[in-house]
Amino acid sequence: MTFLGHGLQGAEGRRPPQAGAESSQFFARGFELEFGTDFEVELGGIPLNTPSHVHGPGFLDQALVIPEVVEGFQYAKGPYRSAQTAVAGRASMELVPALREPFLSFTHGGARTDRFARFLWTETLPSSVTYALDLTRNERPWDDLTGSARLNAAFRKDGEGPRGRWSLTLLGSDDRTDAGGASPVRPWTGDGTPDDARAGDGTRNQRVLLGWRLAAREGPGRTGRVRVYAGAHHQRIWNNWTFFLRDPVNGDQTEQVDRRAFVGMDSERTWDRGAWTHTLGLQARADRVTAEVTPTADRERLGASPAPRLAARGGLYHGTLHGQSALRLGRGWEAFLGMRLDAHRNRVSALAGPWSPQDRGQVLGSPRAGLSFSPAEGTVFSASAGRGFRIGDAFRDTRPMVRTTSAEVSAQTRPLAPWVASLTVWRLDLEAEVLFDPGKNAFTARGPARHEGVELYNEVRTGPWRAELAWGWNRAAFKEPAHGLDHVPGSVPLTGYLGVGWSDRGLGLEARVRRTGVRPLTGDGAVTAGRQDALELKAQVDLDRWSFGVEVINAFNWKKYNYQYHYASRFPDGEAVADRHLKAADPQAIRVEVRRRF
């Protein structure tokens, strides 16, 4: 298993991967995590995933994360604890409450024609306020890659009142990209080039998120926490994946718009009664959303097109009551039993086009249970099972929630004092698989599927050295295949990660290698994407109040593409052809950072 640790964890003093780099992809349980359909992320107690987004359920955009001021990264797999709903897993992180000292950072570099620049300023004020401003500009004037301009702001204030400690988090982002879709492998014929056909592809994303949390003191053996969050965004996505398949004159570019305001709360109370620990929680969220899909050409809306205009507006409402009891049985044995009761209501009406939005509700109960045994310090054997769900697509699907069921057994031990090793065997059943549909530029529901696999993880820390080795095998197949097409396109049978680092006396060196195995692109497995390797190298030196760092992204150009799909597209002078399409990876880039602490 390869996971998000290095992508999201960037605590003060550490040097995270540079923004704008696309040489790394992250996977858990065989799922690619980039788009969020199967993985949940929280920052400062604020959910970053968007339910029933126009681009697909659970849409995740982490552009507003500033890694240098993030800490407390926690990662969990599966939906086993009562407060969790994720399919593949979830990650949570915090803005640092206080910096040891403010710093200013400047990063520059890139590939032969890639110009990258980033400014970052952050400090903690005497009034227990920490803030950060991050400005990134990334230009790639060469074929089929991404350029972006991004302004991020983060703010956190901590305090203490009669009920306990509280924190206030404010996040804002204005992000623009000029990003094309995948390019066909077959030679282009007809006028222009694939880039000409995709002129105007990209995104514009404006977001504001606000969260408040309280960790309450309620007496001996009792704790409580409350969080309230709200946000609004205006997201626009332009893409043309199929060129001239639907519209042979203007091309197939569409504009997807998701305008949304939402508010939510989460309250939880815990009672510690000796061998027993009981937890009871309540969650609620309401979204007001307007979604549109409009045919465009170079971002200009078309008055007439063979492709229909789609639009819908409405509210999404979700409420949860969850509880869990854990029992310490003695002699290293522990057990837990939990239950979630979720109610979801979609009240969405169509404004234009053949969408089938919902006005219906659903209630699901999701039991979870687990048992663990620790015969010695550092060694744990555990088994967990549970039912969960994924919020459905309110615009394209008829199910407000989609059922999931998972189970796993694992063993963790310390063969030697500095060495931690774990092995996990797992299975996950989905009522509906979610896959990307290039023709709709969206993630859509397919048939029921089963994922199962094995994960191996090793970590060694000794003196100035640290090393991580992770490996995962995954098999994914549809349960009700049509004509023998049981492969899940894009599922990754093999993932691996090796990281080695050394740090001493102000000097740090790190190397990371990621591997993904051959994956099927079609249901019969006849068309596949080849094995991929990616190498990243980093060096950092600290001199008094100055730090200097160098990062090599996609070293030696090992990685050739970011993703591949197999689908039908049409060139200006031809017929529709089902073929392989790929998004080229960034070539090797060298970036240099200078940081000044004050």
What does this entry look like structurally?
With 598 residues, the protein is mostly beta strands. It contains two helices and 38 strands. The chain has helices at residues 5-8, 194-197; strands at residues 27-28, 31-32, 39-43, 46-47, 49-50, 59-60, 70-77, 89-95, 103-110, 115-125, 129-139, 147-161, 164-178, 183-184, 202-217, 222-239, 254-273, 276-297, 300-301, 310-330, 333-352, 359-376, 379-391, 401-416, 419-430, 434-437, 442-445, 449-462, 465-478, 494-504, 507-516, 519-520, 528-529, 532-543, 546-553, 561-569, 577-584, 589-597. It has a 22-stranded antiparallel β-barrel. β20 and β21 form a beta hairpin. The longest helix has 4 residues, at 5-8. The model is unreliable at 1-23 and 141-145 (pLDDT under 50).
Give the DSSP E fraction (strand runs of 2 or more residues).
Answer: over 45%
In terms of quaternary structure, the protein is: single chain
Terminal Cα separation, in Å?
39 Å
- Helical percentage: under 10%
Classification by helices and strands: mainly beta
Spatial shape = globular
Query: How large is the radius of gyration?
Result: 24 Å
Number of continuous helical runs: 2
Q: What is the residue-averaged pLDDT?
A: 87
Which residues form runs of ≥5 with pLDDT under 50? Answer: 1-23, 141-145
Number of strands: 38
Main sheet record? 22 strands, antiparallel, barrel
